[in-house]
């Protein structure tokens, strides 16, 4: 009887161990083994200021990004053969809130939302919808695929974008400046060349976000490899930083007409940055910490790693950050159900 009982216990634990092993073997889409040995500072880099609730309870604010305002959006479905959205804007003090209903064509994809306009593409045209007047200006965008885009503040009709452009059957993927008024494309950095076909897999390899981190600096932070591209306010590439996690470009495979990350797995890297005159501060997801936000400091002069900081806030880790807003000496982190405002410490 004792032997049967003992055999039952052993069988039970072997079954649990086998299940865990099988799950680990097949669940290889995400790894967390790209962290590096850090030198942590004892100083506090960000001081907590206030926590704010979402602008609208049922908004799906992870879908959209604004350069200049806090933004949330909610998809309201199809009405009169148009896709309908409800947008909520706020200043950085959460004092001025604006609500705007917007309708765009069924085939349209929203590229950029700003306080004055919404930019979307549809059927080889990029359209600019003015928020106050609802007027629409259309621009020819044949041969262009935009994956991520940011406006150039000092050049109101020009945009820096990551995407693909067809130059007489030579398809180039990378960063470009698009003058929408004159329909001119300027190459900034090409990541891949190809003949006769677009390369949507590069979108996955270099997925990331644009940020206006200073008056004259725009960054594009890759979230699945270690690269951060830095541009000036004219859209010119001025530097490339490789963070110390040294995460390589992920493998992408094609099945039928769809693209997927390889089952070899991929690592999350960085979610955004902020800066001062001498340094770039990177929110790193390449960390073994599950309840601490990690910020790595790099020199702008030589792009070398200097040190790291821990930000302890509500058991969040860096992967929980959905967006980063910078306003003078204030930084606002957007999480799933709230915002948190911080003030830069004197160590920045």
Supply the key terms.
348 residues, mainly beta, Neuraminidase, four-stranded antiparallel beta sheet
Summarize the structure in words.
By secondary structure, the chain is mainly β. The chain has one domain (33-344): Neuraminidase (6 Propeller), CATH 2.120.10. It contains 2 helices and 27 strands. It has helices at residues 2-26, 201-205, and strands at 30-31, 46-53, 70-79, 82-90, 97-105, 109-113, 117-122, 125-130, 136-140, 144-152, 155-167, 170-179, 184-195, 208-214, 217-222, 227-232, 237-242, 252-255, 258-261, 266-267, 270-275, 279-284, 293-299, 305-311, 323-327, 330-334, 338-344. Strands 2-27-26-25 form a 4-stranded antiparallel β-sheet, with no helix packed on it. A 4-stranded antiparallel β-sheet has the order 6-7-8-9, with no helix packed on it. A hairpin with a 3-residue loop joins strand 6 (109-113) and strand 7. The longest helix is centred in the first third of the chain and has 25 residues, at 2-26. The chain is globular and about 55 Å long.
């Amino acid at each position: 009887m004792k032997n049967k009982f003992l055999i039952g216990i052993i069988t039970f634990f072997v079954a649990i161990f086998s299940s865990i092993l099988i799950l680990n073997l097949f669940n290889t889409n995400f790894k967390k083994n790209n962290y590096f040995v850090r030198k942590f500072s004892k100083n506090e880099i960000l001081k907590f200021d206030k926590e704010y609730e979402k602008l609208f309870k049922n908004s799906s604010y992870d879908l959209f990004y604004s350069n200049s305002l806090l933004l949330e959006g909610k998809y309201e479905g199809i009405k009169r053969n148009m896709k309908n959205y409800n947008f909520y804007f706020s200043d950085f003090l959460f004092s001025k809130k604006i609500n705007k209903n917007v309708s765009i064509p069924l085939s349209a994809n929203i590229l950029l939302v700003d306080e004055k306009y919404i930019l979307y593409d549809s059927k080889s045209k990029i359209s600019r919808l003015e928020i106050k007047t609802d007027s629409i200006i259309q621009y020819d965008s044949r041969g262009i695929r935009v994956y991520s885009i940011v406006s150039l503040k000092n050049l109101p009709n020009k945009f820096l974008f990551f995407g693909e452009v067809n130059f007489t059957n030579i398809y180039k993927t990378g960063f470009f400046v698009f003058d929408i008024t004159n329909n001119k494309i300027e190459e900034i950095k090409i990541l891949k060349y190809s003949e006769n076909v677009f390369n949507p897999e590069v979108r996955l390899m270099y997925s990331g976000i644009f940020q206006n981190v200073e008056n004259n600096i725009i960054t594009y932070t890759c979230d699945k490899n270690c690269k951060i591209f830095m541009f000036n306010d004219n859209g010119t590439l001025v530097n490339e930083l490789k963070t110390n996690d040294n995460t390589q470009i992920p493998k992408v495979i094609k099945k039928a007409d769809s693209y997927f990350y390889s089952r070899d797995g991929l690592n999350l890297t960085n979610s955004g940055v902020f800066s001062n005159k001498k340094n770039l501060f990177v929110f790193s997801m390449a960390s073994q910490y599950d309840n601490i936000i990690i910020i790595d400091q790099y020199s702008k002069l030589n792009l070398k790693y200097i040190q790291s900081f821990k930000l302890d806030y509500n058991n969040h880790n860096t992967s929980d950050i959905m967006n980063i807003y910078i306003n003078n000496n204030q930084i606002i982190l957007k999480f799933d159900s709230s915002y948190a405002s911080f003030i830069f410490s004197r160590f920045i």
